[in-house]
Specification:
It is built from four helices and twelve strands, in the order ααββββββαββββαββ. It starts with a helix and ends in an 18-residue tail after the last strand.
Length: about 220
């Protein structure tokens, strides 16, 4: 009889309380695990989005830098006055120029246009032929390349005493040449939680004078 009682005690299963406690413990562990997985996934997505944004910004900055380095003193003839001018429109918040750098390495020259609006920095591209490319730029559709940024520009030139200074505008029609360099500053419009950093490009322009056009920089008194 004692042997039978011992066998029954050894083969006895879990009680209802033990089962409930086991289920509660398992649910708690699963809850903690799911919370940890959610936090890791959320941080991963945030970091991935941040990395994608930084990559897009870097590619845009590199593209603009290359296009400015390849700026070309594009000469065209005004149909009314029959005078020759250099195309370059530089203001403190707007820049348009012709470059030897084209997207996807397309042949020929390309007109570039940079400006800002409420969404960010916009880029417009249009082919540059032998005329003034302004009309084609107006017809082209701008693309948002740097969201939540604002662009400002300054232009390097030589003073009469051979010192170099920066100015806020540069009009190729008047100066008949390009600046020595262009400084572009991209400032965040609405920097939430310091998520955006100020970006800068300083691009030296090698071909700043057209070989067939004499610069009027000194005539203008700059």
């Amino acid at each position: 009889m004692n042997k039978l009682s011992g066998l029954i005690r050894r083969n006895r299963g879990f009680t209802l309380v033990e089962v409930i406690l086991a289920l509660a413990l398992t649910a708690t562990l699963l809850g903690l695990l799911s919370t940890g997985v959610y936090v890791v996934a959320r941080d991963w997505n945030r970091n991935a989005d941040r990395l994608d944004r930084h990559l897009d910004e870097a590619l845009s900055i590199l593209q603009i830098d290359r296009a400015l380095h390849g700026a070309f003193p594009h000469g065209y003839t005004d149909p009314e006055s029959l005078s020759r001018f250099v195309y370059f429109v530089g203001e403190d918040d707007y820049l348009s120029w012709v470059s030897t750098v084209t997207p996807q390495r397309q042949p020929g020259l390309m007109a570039w246009e940079l400006f800002s609006n409420d969404q960010g920095v916009q880029l417009t591209l249009a082919p540059a032929f032998s005329d003034n490319p302004s009309a084609r730029l107006e017809q082209a559709e701008p693309q948002l390349i740097l969201p939540n940024y604002r662009a400002s520009f300054s232009y390097l030139y030589d003073e009469l005493d051979e010192s170099r200074q920066w100015r806020d505008d540069w009009l190729g029609e008047e100066l008949q040449s390009l600046p020595l360099a262009v400084h572009v500053r991209f400032s965040p419009i609405d920097n939430q939680q310091d998520a955006l950093e100020e970006l800068e490009v300083v691009a030296r322009i090698a071909s700043y004078q057209h070989r067939n056009l004499r610069s009027s920089l000194f005539q203008a008194g700059f």
